[in-house]
Amino acid sequence: MTAQHGRKPIRVLRVIARLNIGGPAIQAISLTSRLERLGYMTTLLRGREGPREGSMDDLAAELGVQPRLIGALRRDPGPHDALALAQLVSIMRAQRPDVVHTHAAKAGALGRLAALIAFPFPKDRPVLVHTFHGHSLSGYFSRRVDAVYRAIERLLARWTDVLIAVSEEVRDELVALGVAHQDKFVVVPLGFNLDQFAADPQACAQARRAVREELAIPATATLITLIARLVPIKRVDRFLRAALHLADLDHARFLIVGDGELRETLRDSAEARALGAKLRWAGFRRDIPAVCAASDVVVLTSDNEGTPVSLIEAGAAGVPTISTRVGGAAAVVRDGETGLLVRRDDGDELVAHIRRLAHDAGLRARMGEAARTHVQEAFSIDTLVAGIDGLYRSLLENRTRAASK
């Protein structure tokens, strides 16, 4: 990688626990690739994915990014964390990066701790940046475990130069949880290359037909889709209950795209069995633009989120969305304009909103077009790269000025 205008490249060490399918992995890979042309030299360190999480290795290969595997770095805590920490410390001491940027909870904890160990003196330490793509500080674990994790995040925040939140909602939740003062945060929205979702009408129609034929979904059906990992926090059970309440809609069909630890439990549930042929399970898919083209409404039923990628991608494809009002969902779904928001535990409202869009093709079309415009403007990859580049350079300049005093 070469420096811009002959300047010495800015060395970045980017750390993520796993490149599983989802927004954090897309961000880590995209930033590694896109920042190169702006004078950066990035090493992307990644851990191992779980057996049913899928992988974004195909995107890394497409963008020419070669992540370095830290085999002991995994999502779940255990004795392997000590080995992962030692490997991170060794790499940092060898590379002496200008910036260490960690993504999500596990990599954030081990990556920042490794930097503090590798460079115990502040004057030698790289700039430390951590991105909260959401958070798991409430709703995931027991109250005691939540308290321990919050204490860890508060301690690490003291030594971190800046904390990034992907939405104002996520920032506000973290401030309310006492992770750090609001002044410690900057909000940098997610950014994606959404060109593949903006195909011409003929290509979209072809993709719609192909996916529906493959999954035996009638061409005239109104397809309600959920795209998510099959894990507890995504509350796919909530989607299944809503679908069962809508089984009276003869023209409606329901599609679940994703995989995860709850696959067998969900597929064997009473709701799934009762829905029968009206419900399709697609597993992990690489052709999400085609899935969106085949869908009439995309739904998210999570208990917690950062900024939901599935809603951004659906909006880019011109598909209206319905989401629980959690995390950064409101930054993607403009309630009543690009889609509809529901209270997290209000099953009746969820059913009513799905029924409303299922019945009204004109409303779906209007919301879909508004969603396309909003998403393309708010979540572009160019805006993300410019924001991160500006942040890095500002932090490094501040560090240089402070050292010269």
Main attributes of the structure:
6-stranded parallel β-sheet; 2 domains; about 400 residues; alpha/beta; disordered N terminus; 7-stranded parallel β-sheet; Rossmann fold; globular
Report on the structure:
This protein is an alpha/beta fold and 405 residues long. The protein folds into 2 domains: 4-191 and 380-404, 3-Layer(aba) Sandwich (Rossmann fold), CATH 3.40.50; 195-378, 3-Layer(aba) Sandwich (Rossmann fold). The chain is 45% helix and 16% strand. The protein is built from 16 helices and 13 strands. Helix 7 (201-214) packs across helix 11 (288-294), helix 8 (236-245) packs across helix 14 (347-359) and helix 12 (309-316) packs across helix 15. The chain starts with 9 loop residues before the first strand and ends with a helix.
- The quaternary structure here is single chain
**Count the helices. How many?**
16
- How are the strands of the biggest sheet laid out side by side? 3-2-1-4-5-6-7
Q: In terms of structural class, how would the helical and strand content be classed?
A: alpha/beta
CATH superfamily caption of the largest domain: Glycogen Phosphorylase B
Percent strand equals 15-25%
Q: Report how far the terminal alpha carbons are from each other.
A: 32 Å
